[in-house]
Specification:
With 411 residues, chain A is of the alpha+beta class. Chain A is 55% helix and 18% strand. The termini of chain B are far apart. In chain B, the strands form 2 sheets. In chain B, strands 6-7-8-3-9-10 form a 6-stranded mixed beta sheet, sandwiched between helices. A 4-stranded antiparallel beta sheet of chain B has the order 2-1-4-5, with helices on one face. Classes of the chains: A alpha+beta (411), B alpha/beta (251).
Amino acid sequence: MNKIVGSIRIALRALRVNRMRSALTMLGIIIGVAAVIAMVGVGAGATKRIQDQIQSIGSNLIMVLPGSVSTNGVRLGAGAVASLTQDDSKAIAAECPSVALSVPTVRGGVQVVYGNNNWATNAQGVTPDYMAVRDYTMLSGQFFTTQDVDAAAKVAVLGETVAENLFGDSDPTGQVVIIKNVPFTVAGVLTPKGQSPTGQDQDDVILLPISTAMQKVLGANRANAQAVGSLTVQAVSPQAMDSAIQEMEALLRERHRILPGLEDDFTIRNLTEVFQAQETSAQVMSILLGAIASVSLIVGGIGIMNIMLVSVTERTREIGLRQAVGAKTGDILLQFLVEAVTLSLLGGIVGIAVGLAASVLISHFAKWSTAVSPLSILLAFLFSALVGVFFGYYPARKAAFMDPIEALRYE
Amino acid sequence: MAAVIEIQDLVKDYRVGEMVVHVLKGISFEIERGDFVSIMGPSGSGKSTLMNILGCLDKPTSGAYTLDGISVGNLNRDQLAEIRNNKIGFVFQQFNLLARTSAAENVELPMMYTDAPARERHERAMKALLAVGLAGREEHQPSQLSGGQQQRVAIARSLVNDPSIILADEPTGALDSRTSIEIMAIFQRLNREKGITMIVVTHDPDVAAYSNRSIHFKDGKLQLDERLAHPRDAHQDLEQLPAELPEEIPS
């Protein structure tokens, strides 16, 4: 301990003597560490943005769509038949243990009118559980209730885009909008979610009780009055996604009386899985950026090695003297290693500060979100210490194994 | 008096390409504890090589060397470093002080490689500086000291670990004659008062005149080993010199 403290003092003195040289050497490490911090920050920011988008569509989400059927060899596309019903939805919620909630959904394009304004949007007929499934919160007012669904009440919940286009800045709650000549009372406005991972505006929507939507707005399916467009299902946990899908498949095949060997008349889609691919690619980008930035850190390390070799040669007589008065191989090795690590650690600390500043500037001017984690700071710090040890070892070893007689005689 | 240094048939060869140069051709002598020995000889006589071996900086090709009862011949690098640290004090012609480092810290240097705590190191350094007459100059850096003062710092450094011997290699080579006598006076005082064995390598007979015993080398062999019946007293010589000029003459 005594020796390490002594070595640090010697190192700081040696670095002070050659201020300019030390600063330039550190600059290599500063740039390297700053690049790693900023680039990993950009990568992590991109990953986080995608994660937020995935969160915005709702967690553990599974879509069940009416599937394709083939009739006399002609195969129809997904959703071509109205095979899913509200009863299917209720059965899934009741009988599948891995399913938390199931919401039957109908959709259609509508023109919404308020006073002199009108706006074309996407109407969705849903049940109150939809709020929980999609992680919605209310900006103002209330979501409609189960009683509203049972009574086919003429109430609507607006997405923020719709509210803004019809009402501007005033609060729409309690106002009446007209859809297909039917007056609807606005129950509330949803908190905006922004873009979906696929780039759609998730706030350009108007939610209606499914009963009202089917009876008054979108119209029921002619073949099957109970049929709905899709089911939006939430699994109890991320781990339960697969079992939820299996349970639903088995239940629906049984309910739809599909014989073994025949194709499903429905399609189940794991939405989260689709967007996880994007997340993975963002993480790969993050690793790539970090790897490229580490190259500059290694170049900085070579700079340290270079200057330490110069320093060892310049101080040959000092090394000889230290050996003469009793410094052992390990003492000299430690002294020069500490000097190299001091250089790289000081560079690392400054580099972390510069990297943090750079990532703030990037997110401010380039509008990229960046996220610098404490872990990446810690890693950058340790990595710069490691660079010092790695690139300082060879010069330190060279110093430690000098012949004391020749070192003392060196001019 | 017991011998602090015993060397027996010491041989040192150097290979230069195909040729083998015999630098030391079988040397034997003893140095007694508390003696003041000068080693003289022209350049190329092998006195520097002998000095390096006595200082445990080099190993002989053959022959035995016992320092303070320890056979040094078979020790490894780090063991030799430890011997140098606690048994030998070095004084060099070019002082070899660390630049931009205070006198006190220069004197503390050998203790950096011991377990001595910081406080003890500082106290011992102060005592050593006092012994060479540099009290009050502890914080001066080498560039702020005269040549004689720098050499005194170096002597303090050689003293600080209480060595068995002090090896001085041309200690007055870079100093004027008056300062040289001052340095020899310090050596004589340390030798008499503290009983430290002094070995001074020099080519200057005036310097050798202050020792008790003079060993002459020529062509790698011991040529003359004489005990001086009446060594000069450096303190007396100093008193007979004209009064000391101020060290720093204001311009």
